[in-house]
Amino acid sequence: MKAIRSLLISTLVAVPSAVSAQVADTLRSDKVVVNAQMIGVGATSILDTYLSPEEYSGTELRYVSHTVRRREGRRWSRMLVHQGAFAYADNRSGNGNEMSGMYTFTYGLHYNWDLLGGRLNVMAGGQADVEAGFLYNTRNGNNPAQARLALNVSPSAAATYRFRLGRVPLAAHYEVSAPVLGLMFSPNYGQSYYEIFSRGNYDHNVVPTTFTNAPSLRNMLTLDFTLGRTTLRLGYLGDFRQAKVNNLKYHSYSNMLLIGFVRHFKITRIVP
To answer: pTM for this structure?
Structure first.
């Protein structure tokens, strides 16, 4: 009886250990994801000479989902950014308004350097932006709206520095991009949307863009700090877009305060 009891105890102890070892061998966590969900609010300045020679100034509200994915031990990372923006602006005399909406998707690929014992991360590479939106002028009877469609390719860079202030962990992050090549939709000077879409009169409406006829810049500076189990983010977003094509001028300058939260997690996959 004693021998049987000893055998049962040994089996009960060994089985959980073997199962745990097997599970540990089959679970692999190799992808680190940093996701930030942010709301931005600030001032905007809009000019589109197709709709009006006047510059309109007002307020912009923007939602930003910013994700960076990187495998452990790898140098390359992927960045995916979704942005949705709405702006309401007035002209100088206060007798006209413009409303704009824009969705932007960004896909970036960057090479990483981890310096200072992992406290400093530097990324450099490139990204592609797809933009789709509209601009509506409340004063216009003919051609009251303008479509915004664009594709841009940009060199981009970012840096993150992690440090402590007392017992509080902090992370300062800065990123910048500037388009060098792209395509954008634009009616020609004096051309109506009726001519483009109803009559099918193409007049150089898909325009190549470079840093010479569409010099633009987007940069973001943020600070992450942890309160309890929640990581919060505060920062600044400057988005400056402009173009001069088809004898028309366009610009959209935005300066915004950002607030949001950050999540760090790993994606675990089962290895057969």
So the answer is: 0.85
